[in-house]
Amino acid sequence: MNSDLLSIAKILNFHGIKGEAKLGFSKGREAQIEALKKVFVKKNNEYKELNVTSVRFHKHFAIVKFKEFDTVNDVEEYKGCDIYLSKDEVEKNLEADEFLINDLIGMDVYDEDGACLGNVCAVGENLANNILSVKDSNGKEHLVPFVKELVPVVDLIGKKIVINNIEGLIS
Questions:
Q1: Architecture of domain 101-162 in this structure
Q2: How far apart are CA 2 and CA 118, in angstroms?
Q3: Domain-wise residue ranges, the chain
Q4: Within 10 Å of residue 142's Cβ, how many Cβ atoms?
């Protein structure tokens, strides 16, 4: 089961005295957090199912009430624990040009003419966008900004990425 779960948030602390949890999550994921009904929390390598009864936002955090938590102590026990959602649920909420990082790693990278340039060995990010780290056949890594202009095709089924290999990107 746990390989089908992805971390989407973290219990940072309790909020108030009625068992509400303060969750940290990635910016831009408010709609996904708001739609939560059932999640899993991982503690001591064990997963516990939690049922969401309400979600509201305060500053940059989500304030979530779980059916199973009634007191500050209930939340305190899980402080610092990740909240998980099934991979299927996460994928349902992805936009057309969004991908899970784990799905990109290992994919072969081609130029527009079909020449294999290497494969994705990591995905990082900077302030502007995500970065694909592409390892060529010589073991050298090349950083490719993960933007539509440079990466026009991501074929998850065919497990390949096509890049616009502009001069100096991957030589």
A1: Roll (2.30)
A2: 30
A3: 2-92, 101-162
A4: 18
Could you say which architecture CATH assigns to the domain 2-92?
Answer: Beta Barrel (2.40)
Question: Degrees (nearest 5) of the Cα angle 88, 78, 12?
Answer: 85
Q: In sequence order, what are the residues at sequence separation of 6 or more whose Cβ sits closer than 8 angstroms to the Cβ of residue 80?
A: 10, 11, 12
State the Cα–Cα distance between residues 83 and 12, nearest whole angstrom: 11
Q: What is the pLDDT of residues 1-44, one digit of tens each?
A: 455 887 888 999 999 999 999 999 877 778 888 888 999 998 89
Distance, CA of 43 to chain centre: 20
3-state secondary structure string across the chain = CHHHEEEEEEEEEEECCCCEEEEEECCCCHHHHHCCCEEEEEECCEEEEEEEEEEEEECCEEEEEECCCCCHHHHHCCCCCEEEEEHHHHHHCCCCCCCCHHHHCCCEEECCCCCEEEEEEEEEECCCCEEEEEECCCCCEEEEECCCCCCCEEECCCCEEECCCCCCCCC
pTM of the model: 0.60
